[in-house]
Amino acid sequence: MSVDETSGSDAAPARIRERAAALGPYLSDRLGRTADIAEVSLASEGMSASTLLVDLHHGERIVLRAQERVDDQLLSLDGAAQFHLLRDVVAHGVPAPPALFFEPDPDILGLPFLATAGLPGAAVVPWSSAGREFLARAGRGPAGAQLLDILVGVHSVPVDGENVVRAVGLPSSDSGRATLKRLRSAVEGNVVQAEPILTDALGWLDANLPPCPEPTLVHGDFRAGNLLFEGERISGLLDWEFAQVGDPARDLAWFMAKSNRQSDDLACDMVPVAEFVADYRRAGGGDISPSSIAYWDVFMLVYSTAMWLRSTALWRAGRLDDLRIARWTHALPKLRVMILDALDEAGR
Predict the structure, then answer these.
(1) What's residue 70's pLDDT?
(2) Which residues of the chain have a pLDDT value below 70?
(3) Pairing state of beta strands 233-237 and 122-123?
(4) Which parts of the chain span the membrane according to its record (predicted)?
(5) Within 10 Å of residue 287's Cβ, how many Cβ atoms?
(6) Neighbouring C-beta atoms of residue 5, cutoff 10 Å
(7) Alpha carbon distance 86, 62 (integer Å)
(8) How many CB atoms lie within 10 A of CB 268?
């Protein structure tokens, strides 16, 4: 996805891929070993970055994640912050991509980028019928227990570690309020018409922020679509740009959210919703109250709506050329209804 107004921009995915194919000498120098490139493929044009898979002749894979820019309103981390975060996360046993280096110079690839080692396995498309069948089957097997262990592992990474602090800052008693302030700015800065449902939801969020006596590292986008699978086992947890220190209930609420599943009773179409919080606690996680789950469910729906509003505004202005975003405008009414339903379920 390019935010440049011209398809010939150095930031256009095709141009980035072309540049990446010529990076053999550069990668050899950065890695301190021979890096003869066999193939470069575009893994995704994500909503925040373009991801390139660089396969070397000797079988190694390097992943380059080229990030257009970081929108502070939407709580995302730049590549440098993700580099530091991943170093601590991997060191504590979480199956995240090992960080190799961060390149801030946009002249190398057309954009700053983060380089990580490739992980085995493949992602699953959760919204396809085949994807849902796979996730349900995997959830009944070892992956069901694995994902709980991974989530507990994320929440167990020390938040005062040097690299975590460099990435997301020290935990603060005001972090929840600061997050809400940025969310409000993201919504108010991107609406093109009156949004009474969002205004109502923001007011409710402000009035009902639950206490968080023990902030943890939070992945921020913990869902099936960000898992890699090798066979029916989980081999990796991707997309750390929304990580922060905060309430661990946020990750559980997002994994359980109705917007992330088509099944009535399986969280992310994988594991039973009704047992997920209790299973998390049995796996070693802390106590999570139903009211906290309800709160962060509303928060994440408003957060998702803010992201969609931001992207559709940029698309209409001609600064984004990804046609998937045009489709989002038709989904926004459904998101608003889901926010109302979540508020009702939270006992507003």
Answers:
(1) 54
(2) 1-12, 44-49, 68-75, 319-322, 324, 326
(3) unpaired
(4) none
(5) 11
(6) 11
(7) 15
(8) 26
Distance, CA of 123 to CA of 130 (rounded, Å): 12
Considering only CA atoms, which of 47, 48, 55 is closest in space to residue 17?
A: 55
Query: CB–CB of 114/79 below 8 Å?
Result: yes
Helix-strand-coil split of the chain, %, nearest 5: 50, 15, 35
**Which domains, and CATH codes, for the chain?**
13-118 (3.30.200.20), 120-173+218-286 (3.90.1200.10), 174-210+288-347 (no CATH)
Spatial CA neighbour of 112 closest among 10, 31, 35, 6: 10
List 234's β-bridge partners, or say none.
229
**23-63 pLDDT, tens digit each:** 999 999 999 999 999 999 988 655 556 899 999 999 999 99
Look up residue 148 and give its amino acid: L
DSSP string, 162-187: HHHHHHH----TTHHHHHHHHHHHHH
With CA atoms as reference, report the closest residue to 52 among 127, 124, 110, 134.
Answer: 110
Label residues 103-123 b or e (16+ Cβ within 10 Å = b).
beeeebbbbbbbbbebbebeb
Distance CA 199, CA 176 (A): 18
**Confidence (pLDDT) at 330:** 77
The residue to which tokens 């990668």 are assigned? 27
Can you give the pLDDT at residue 257?
95
Nearest one of 131, 111, 117, 128 to 48, comparing CA atoms: 111
d(Cα 179, Cα 174) in Å, to the nearest integer? 9
The predicted pLDDT at position 46 comes to 54
pTM of the model as a whole = 0.91
Question: By the 8 A CB rule, do 98 and 86 touch?
Answer: yes
Total number of residues shown for the chain = 348
Residue at token pair 């661990």: 248
- Partners of residue 266 on adjacent β-strands: 272
* 282 contact partners, CB below 8 Å, separation of at least 6: none
Instruction: Detail the DSSP E strand segments found in the chain.
Output: 37-45, 49-56, 61-67, 99-103, 113-117, 122-123, 216-218, 227-230, 233-237, 244-246, 266-267, 271-272
